[in-house]
Design brief:
Number of strands: 31
GO molecular function: acetate-CoA ligase (ADP-forming) activity; ATP binding; metal ion binding
Strand content: 15-25%
Strand order of the largest sheet: 9-8-11-10-12-13-14
Pfam families: ATP-grasp_5 (PF13549), CoA_binding_2 (PF13380), Ligase_CoA_2 (PF19045), Succ_CoA_lig (PF13607)
Structural class: alpha/beta
Distance between the termini: 43 Å
Protein name: acetate--CoA ligase (ADP-forming)
Number of helices: 24
CATH architecture of the largest domain: 3-Layer(aba) Sandwich
Largest sheet: 7 strands, mixed
InterPro entries: Acyl-CoA_Synth/Transferase, ATP-grasp, ATP_grasp_subdomain_1, CoA-bd, Ligase_CoA_dom, NAD(P)-bd_dom_sf, Succ_CoA_lig_flav_dom, Succinyl-CoA_synth-like
Number of domains: 4
Catalytic activity: acetate + ATP + CoA = acetyl-CoA + ADP + phosphate
CATH class of the largest domain: Alpha Beta
CATH topology of the largest domain: Rossmann fold
């Protein structure tokens, strides 16, 4: 609560670097602070008065100061932060740039600043940030030209310039903010603490954010789980591509992390991810009006049949349903609409519908218990009084969410303004309106619903395998160490590592035909690329021929590879899937599941989760791949043992968490048998951190 109090509700603010010179940041910040309900103290030794306020030579001279806004050259910031600590300042908002984002010298300055702050217990927002605002108390310690409206949307952003754009858009859309926080370089205060502060703030109902990289990925998930259980959170994460990640690093010195990790993490902790500014704006506008929106069945009202069809198509495409109107609703529509109207969803009130007709039809749809929300579409036809229709839509007193869409140009501008002023989410196209509803429908779908199970495993055996490999300076483990999986209860196909044809014949006899031969080499990652696997060997004669052929192939396609032997393995049939472990710099261990076999890297039908996971999340991973119908029983086929795979995912998760040296691991393929018959790992490869 102390950070929330000092950051968003300070009783006094010093503006260090205030200036009467227009066009300077110090002038813009102080001008914006003139509406602050608390005390404002300009600080600049060059002036006795700035903008009608007494100016102090140093922060040490002000009467009292809970927050300081620092707008001075970077080289002077560490000393001024030290003075802030001596003056009792709780939070310093460092707008100044020239720190980590500028290179090594800037990084040194940032560390000096932090050292001074930590010595006195001063918290730092920034540096290289836009500032902070709380319109509810007139606090606008930013240099934006737009004074935000007060409202219930909290915004945090790692980009100050982008935040300026968001604030300008929100002003035009009549969207009000409870708090605006620019993170900048996140030298001290980061997104996790700001999220926690916004969770505590009763005046914040929705959180929007722009993020380039997480300082503490697992911490973000932990805080976000708590926040999203109380209020919706929507983040736009930049740096999705290699080029974007590189730009992120040069922008704020952050590590972007892998995009699949953020995708997984956001879903698991309930953060709704926007993929563009337009999506962030559109979803934010909807949630600002209806923060607790739950929607599946949509009613569509229109004065143009074509718009209704577009909205209906969009509903289906985005996972929504066109509501089935009740008989009583249809009868009510017949009483208020002309005979030529369409009384079924989408409801077409016809092109000459006036404001009263719109209001009557909209009220009927809102009263239907089978309708969760209504999309109200208007085309500015010659007979349409758009402004009157807008006022009628806004006047319908319904608890049901109403989303308006005025499709046109100059003739719809005033109507859109009327609707936005009255708090009705308004869009220029039906697809964007429905898309926003569809995205909000997915809120909370990916939440972790159960705690990970701790299985009884043979960790000691795994530690022995890993430590022995590291002693030998081996960084990879192949299928010859598949017993590593067995130690964690992951079923494997019976197999024996052999050194010559005689050992191979004895192994096959013991295992039982049919068998598979696989070359074992630390220099061969993908056996199929060197034709290093032969399947379906049914007797000793075939095995002798296959063994000779296998060694010849490896000699031809990988002549420099060290061959440690040939694995003889029981032939297993079923659906092939892949399970895996990888590591992300922000979120730690990731789990992968998908369609397996030799085409996994081509088809890319895989999903990721941040480890650890419980049963419900493991099952969701399986259901989320496109090929899931191949496992669930397509066209009358038998189902495959999905529950067994889900347990293996959980056991793999425990393996990842308990053995940090494993940085990558692939079980490809794991063969899934019919329902009730389990699954079997038949190949395996792991990479260790030395």
């Amino acid at each position: 609560m102390s950070l929330l109090r000092s950051l968003l509700f300070p009783h006094s603010v010093a503006v260090i670097g205030a200036t009467p010179r227009e066009g300077k940041v110090g002038h813009a910040v102080l001008s914006n602070m003139l509406s602050f309900e608390g005390d404002v103290y300009p600080v600049n030794p060059k002036y006795e008065q700035v903008l009608g306020l007494k100016c102090y030579p140093s922060v040490l001279d002000v009467p009292s100061c809970e927050m300081a806004v620092v707008i001075i050259p970077a080289r002077a910031v560490p000393h001024v932060v030290e003075q802030c600590g001596m003056a009792g300042v709780k939070v310093a908002v460092v707008i100044s740039a020239g720190f980590r984002e500028s290179g090594i010298e800037g990084l040194k300055l940032e560390r000096e600043m932090l050292k001074a702050a930590q010595e006195y217990g001063v918290r730092i927002l920034g540096p290289n940030c836009l500032g902070v605002a709380n319109p509810r108390i007139g606090l606008n310690a930013t240099f934006t030209a737009t004074i935000p409206h007060a409202g219930k949307v909290g915004v945090l952003s790692q980009s100050g310039a982008l935040l300026t754009s968001i604030m300008d858009w929100a002003y035009q859309m009549k969207l009000g903010f409870s708090a605006v926080v620019s993170l900048g370089n996140k030298a001290d205060i980061g997104e996790n603490e700001v999220l926690e502060a916004l969770r505590e703030d009763e005046g914040t109902a929705v959180v929007l954010g722009y993020l380039e990289g997480a300082s503490d990925g697992r911490g973000l998930m932990r805080v976000a789980r708590a926040v999203t259980r109380q209020k919706p959170v929507v983040f736009l994460k930049a740096g999705r591509t290699g080029a974007g990640s590189k730009a992120v690093s040069s922008h704020t010195g952050s590590l972007a992390g892998s995009d699949v990790a953020y995708e997984a993490a956001f879903g698991q902790c309930g953060i709704l991810r926007a993929y563009s500014l337009e999506e962030l704006f559109d979803i934010g506008m909807l949630l600002s009006a209806y923060p607790e929106l739950k929607v599946r069945r949509v009613g569509v009202l229109t004065n143009a049949g074509g718009l209704g069809i577009l909205a209906a198509d969009a509903c289906v495409l985005h996972g929504l349903e066109l509501a089935q109107l009740s008989p009583s609703t249809i009868e009510q529509l017949k009483r208020v609409l002309p005979p030529a109207a369409s009384f079924y969803n989408p409801v077409d009130v016809l092109g000459d519908a006036d404001a009263h007709t719109y209001a009557s039809a909209l009220s009927a749809l809102c009263d239907d218990e089978g309708v969760d929300a209504v999309v109200c579409l208007t085309s500015p036809q010659a007979m349409t009084d758009v402004e009157a229709v807008a006022r009628a839509i806004a006047a319908v007193g319904s608890k049901k969410p109403i989303v308006a869409c005025l499709v046109g140009g100059s003739r719809t501008e005033q109507g859109m303004r009327i609707l936005r002023e009255r708090g009705v989410p308004t869009y220029p196209y039906p697809e964007r309106a429905v898309f926003s509803l569809g995205r909000v429908r997915t809120l909370r779908e990916g939440w972790d619903e159960d705690e990970p199970v701790r299985f009884k495993v043979d960790r000691a055996s795994v530690r022995t395998i890993i430590e022995r490999a590291l002693e030998l300076r081996k960084s990879t483990l192949g299928v010859e160490h598949i017993e590593l999986l067995e130690a964690y209860g992951i079923p494997t196909a019976p197999s024996v590592l052999t050194r010559d044809i005689d050992e191979a014949l004895r192994a096959a006899s013991a295992i039982g035909y049919p068998v598979v031969l696989k070359v074992v080499s630390p220099h061969i990652s993908h056996k199929t690329e060197v034709k290093g696997v032969i399947t379906g060997i049914s007797d000793a004669s075939e095995l002798e021929s296959a063994y000779s052929a296998l060694m010849a192939r490896v000699g031809r396609y990988a002549p420099d590879a060290l061959v440690e032997g040939v694995l003889v393995q029981q032939m297993v049939e079923g659906r092939e899937v892949v399970l895996g472990i990888s590591e992300d710099e922000q979120f730690g261990k990731l789990l992968m599941f998908g369609l397996g076999g030799v085409y996994v890297e081509v088809l890319r039908d895989v999903v990721f989760r941040v480890s650890p996971v419980g049963r419900s999340q493991a099952l969701k991973m399986i259901r989320d791949i496109r090929a899931y119908p191949l496992l669930s029983g397509v066209r009358g086929e038998e189902r495959y043992d999905v529950e067994a795979v889900a347990e293996c995912i959980q056991r793999l998760s425990q393996l990842a968490e308990e053995n940090p040296e494993i940085v990558e691991l692939d079980i490809n393929p794991m063969v899934v048998r019919r329902e009730g018959d389990g699954c079997v790992a038949v190949d395996f490869r792991a990479t260790l951190r030395r």
